[in-house]
Amino acid sequence: DAKTTQPNSMESNEEEPVHLPCNHSTISGTDYIHWYRQLPSQGPEYVIHGLTSNVNNRMASLAIAEDRKSSTLILHRATLRDAAVYYCILRDLGRTALIFGKGTTLSVSS
Amino acid sequence: GAGVSQSPRYKVAKRGQDVALRCDPISGHVSLFWYQQALGQGPEFLTYFQNEAQLDKSGLPSDRFFAERPEGSVSTLKIQRTQQEDSAVYLCASSSPIPGAYNEQFFGPGTRLTVL
Question: Do B109 and A98 touch (CB under 8 A)?
Answer without folding.
Answer: no
